[in-house]
Amino acid sequence: xxxxxxxxxxxxxxxxxxxxxxxxxxxxxxxxxxxxxxxxxxxxxxxxxxxxxxxxxxxxxxxxxxxxxxxxxxxxxxxxxxxxxxxxxxxxxxxxxxxxxxxxxxxxxxxxxxxxxxxxxxxxxxxxxxxxxxxxxxxxxxxxxxxxxxxxxxxxxxxxxxxxxxx
Length: 167
Fold this sequence. Notes:
Largest sheet: 6 strands, mixed
Distance between the termini: 10 Å
CATH class: Alpha Beta
Structural class: alpha/beta
Number of domains: 1
């Protein structure tokens, strides 16, 4: 089996999770940032990672996802919101929809540090007004991803890949 890990990362959050997933793939494997990733055709399993932008995978990740056809895939993402939030659920649902026609074997999403430029724009953005809930959430996001998040990502992908290898 030949595996590919592709990720889009603006602040390093998604790259950290991609590297953790890559570590546990016990097969012929490659890892690339999305900007230089090879075409997906020659791979049996593709783990594709994104940072959440406006409730969905970022543009570069979406563009790569559109190239993936009839594959076994795993998706992972990072966002500043809580991973149990509606925002996180909608982002994963959006990624699933983009990968329609592929078999999704694993999913993972966790918090990640917020891009400082986005935080600066927040007070001007009436849709995302800063309040005590958001402030607390963004403070928590600054602690992520961490070692525990990496372990959870590995666990989410390990069983799926082991099952593939046993086929």
